[in-house]
């Protein structure tokens, strides 16, 4: 091997070492993006189906205790209200539930074609008394959903008739 070839080989080795050392892609934390969806009839028996769906989501997504609590609260409270009040004049309709988990944030979307109702506008219940019998019935579940969520949005689409409530909870 000539002196020129040795020098070239040495330079090439140095260049390759430099390239490997400074061009490695840094390890990026893996971001988990998962989405679950279910559609059920808006009837009382579907609440149990939605709760079983919730059990599966909790197992799959590894939610924090706060996220799990809010997920169950939203499904129990909002789905129950849809069944009880949403379709009272229209017969049985549907409830669609979509849950997504991305970068530690839980996003719950619940949709129906029932009577439009924005839970953000419902007045807070009177909780000034400790005597349960003196409190007016209703509104406490919606209050807890609003208080526990990081963000809530509601939209009623006049054209399609869909109501959509989105509830977000971070870590």
List keywords for this structure.
serine/threonine-protein kinase; alpha+beta; 171 residues; transferase; five-stranded antiparallel sheet
List the helices and strands and how they pair.
Blueprint: H1 3-22, E1 33-41, H2 44-61, H3 65-86, E2 94-102, E3 105-112, H4 140-148, E4 151-156, E5 163-169
Antiparallel strand pairs: 1-2, 2-3, 3-5, 4-5
Helix pairs in contact: 2-3, 3-4
Protein name: Cyclic nucleotide-binding protein
GO molecular function: protein serine/threonine kinase activity
Domain Histidine kinase/HSP90-like ATPase: 41-158
Task: Outline the structure in words.
With 171 residues, the chain is of the alpha+beta class. The protein has a single domain, classed as Histidine kinase-like ATPase, C-terminal domain (Heat Shock Protein 90). The protein has helices at residues 3-22, 44-61, 65-86, 140-148, and strands at 33-41, 94-102, 105-112, 151-156, 163-169. Strand 4 and strand 5 (163-169) form a beta hairpin. Mean pLDDT is 78; it is low at 18-32.
């Amino acid at each position: 091997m000539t002196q020129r070839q040795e020098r070239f080989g040495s330079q090439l080795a140095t260049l390759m070492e430099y390239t490997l050392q400074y061009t490695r892609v840094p390890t990026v934390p893996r971001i988990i993006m998962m989405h679950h969806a279910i559609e059920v009839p808006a009837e009382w028996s579907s609440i149990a189906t939605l709760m079983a769906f919730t059990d599966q989501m909790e197992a799959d997504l590894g939610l924090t205790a706060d996220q799990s609590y809010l997920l169950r609260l939203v499904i129990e409270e909002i789905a129950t209200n849809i069944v009880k009040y949403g379709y009272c004049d229209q017969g049985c309709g549907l409830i669609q539930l979509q849950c997504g988990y991305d970068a530690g944030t839980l996003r719950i979307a619940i949709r129906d074609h029932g009577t439009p109702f924005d839970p953000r506008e419902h007045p807070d219940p009177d909780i000034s008394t400790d005597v349960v019998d003196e409190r007016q019935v209703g509104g406490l579940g919606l209050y807890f959903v609003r208080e526990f969520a990081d963000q809530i949005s509601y939209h009623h689409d006049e054209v399609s008739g869909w109501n959509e409530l989105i509830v977000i909870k971070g870590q």
